[in-house]
Design a protein that fits this description.
The chain is mainly alpha-helical. The protein has one domain: ABC transporter involved in vitamin B12 uptake, BtuC, CATH 1.10.3470. The protein has 18 helices and two strands. It has helices spanning 2-5, 14-28, 30-33, 37-60, 70-88, 92-117, 122-142, 144-147, 179-202, 205-215, 217-222, 227-253, 258-261, 264-277, 283-309, 316-319, 325-339, 343-368; strands spanning 153-154, 255-256. Strands 1-2 form a two-stranded antiparallel ribbon. The longest helix is centred in the middle third of the chain and has 27 residues, at 227-253. The protein is globular and about 65 Å long.
Length: 369
């Protein structure tokens, strides 16, 4: 049953399976295990980025396409919810219209980019997507009557998702059930459903063709596959999932602006998470998002504690200053790439294969003897 649910793409490593189970359980019970506003915000951000990074992994890891327009579709999803709720009110109908409108716009843009650009070489396609994403960010900043400009849009959600909504007077297991609590579990359910859908896509015959194109597109074309069609479909699917991730972000923040969902820094974060977790694995999105978001959110606190503990030692308090958290984050990334060149998930799977090969060799020798 579990194998079918995961589209027969099992972790293939006991340690990786334990890590994934721990992460899923931690996210499932985050409101109870990690009390506090900051911890819940980090958990919700992890859920959003798991979907966003998994969608980008479909494009980069499974198809071999480098695109910098991923955050554009992310922003379209967030703006779809924000604009609809701002102009139509805090209703479920507004959420539906915003989501469907964002998906329709992303579909058209992804088709246009795919059909007009995927015939060029990889580096030129990457530059085209970068230019399109930059133009869209500028457009979102200038259309102030629609998008709120640089100030963005703050909006309300339906009552059930509002932080002021408290259906029960008493706490449940020490946690007050309110609209924020309900929104978190809505995001969790969406993340599970979308990741399972992506696993199904990459393990289908369509996904196998994408991997064949990644390995050798000329050979895939020679045996009869329309490479441009498959790459365009991959771009469209990736864009739609990224749009849904943007909708999830807007639901959680109840605000959206250019820097919130269209910033190029988000694109850099997505690239880092894909590399840390492991390209072409899907599970890497989950592992990488947790590692990166936790490090990004709590590294300053750890450095502050280290600086206070080393207060009497020359130079070290300055080195461990919270203001230098980006330096340490960069160092952690360099070390992760050095020790995990294929990502955390890829490395764990490689170790599992080596152990199985080492265990099967003596058995084969005994059979021959």
């Amino acid at each position: 049953m579990l194998s079918r649910l995961l589209s027969h793409d099992l972790p293939r490593s006991k340690l990786l399976a334990l890590i994934l189970v721990a992460i899923v359980l931690g996210l499932a019970f985050a409101p109870f295990l990690f009390p506090g506003v900051k911890a819940l915000n980090v958990a919700a951000k992890v859920l959003v980025f798991v979907v966003l990074v998994a969608a980008f992994d479909l494009l980069l890891g499974y198809t071999g396409i480098v695109s910098f327009a991923h955050t554009m579709f992310f922003g379209i999803g967030a703006y779809g919810i924000a604009i609809a709720c701002t102009h139509m009110g805090a209703t479920w109908g507004a959420l539906a219209v915003g989501t469907l409108g964002a998906l329709a716009l992303s579909l058209l843009l992804a088709l246009a980019i795919g059909l007009f650009s995927l015939r060029v070489r990889a580096i030129f396609f990457a530059m085209i997507t970068l230019a399109v994403a930059a133009a869209f960010q500028t457009l979102a900043s200038q259309l102030s009557t629609l998008t709120g400009g640089e100030d963005g849009l703050t909006f309300r959600l339906p009552q059930w998702l509002s932080p002021s909504f408290e259906p029960f007077e008493d706490e449940f297991l020490g946690v007050l059930i309110d609209g924020k609590f309900i929104t978190y579990y809505l995001l969790f359910a969406l993340t599970v459903a979308l990741v399972l859908a992506l696993l199904r896509i990459v393990n289908s015959p369509f996904g196998r063709v994408l991997q064949a194109i990644r390995e050798n597109e000329f050979r895939a074309e020679a045996i009869g596959y329309r490479v441009v069609v498959y790459r365009t479909l991959s771009s469209v699917l990736s864009a739609l999932f990224a749009t849904l991730a943007g909708c999830m972000l807007a639901l959680w923040l109840r605000y959206n602006g250019p820097d919130t969902s269209l910033s190029f820094e988000i694109m850099i974060d997505v690239l880092l998470i894909v590399v840390i977790g492991g390209m072409g694995t899907m599970y890497g999105a989950l592992v990488g998002a947790v590692l990166f978001m936790v490090a990004q959110s709590y590294l300053q606190d750890l450095l502050r504690l280290a600086g206070e503990a080393l207060a009497g030692v020359p130079l070290l308090p300055t080195l461990f200053s919270p203001d230098r958290w980006l330096l340490w984050l960069g160092l952690l990334f360099v070390l992760s790439v050095y020790y995990f060149p294929s990502g955390v998930v890829g490395r764990l799977r490689e170790q599992h294969v080596r152990r199985r090969s080492a265990a099967s060799t003596p058995q084969a020798q005994r059979r021959q003897a």
